[in-house]
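#struct-help
A.M.: can someone run this one for me? Single chain, 127 residues.
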Amino acid sequence: MNFQQIKPACCDVFVWLAAWRDAIKYWVIPLYDVEHSPHYSPGQHRGNVGEGQLHLNKENISDFDKYLRKSTELEKAIREAYETEKKLRSGAQQRQQRRSPPEADRSTVLLTPMRKTYRDNSTAVFC
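D.P.: on it. Structure tokens below:
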């Protein structure tokens, strides 16, 4: 299973859902942890800039267990992951500033959910 077309510049927290016949799983992951995962590849296609993919399989899926959340805990988990992201990013920026001249601040991008209605009247929400 791969989470593809990951655009790190577009968010601070990822919420991923995987649905199998017998289970639905939710992962809430701070961006910093995605970018620094050994399973993340920043270039999805040759020459591609700005998006990548995260490779999950039966051998490494347990590496992501710490990000698993129940559906009833998603809002709280997203808020906690955002605070974690800020701390991780701030710590990384402080370490970077000690090594090099300051750079422009990373701007925040807000995503607006988009609703898609299919012919069978089912709907999906995308960010």
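A.M.: thanks! Strands lie at 2-6, 13-19, 24-30, 40-41, 52-55, 68-69, 114-117, 123-126.
D.P.: also worth noting: The two ends are 20 Å apart (CA to CA).
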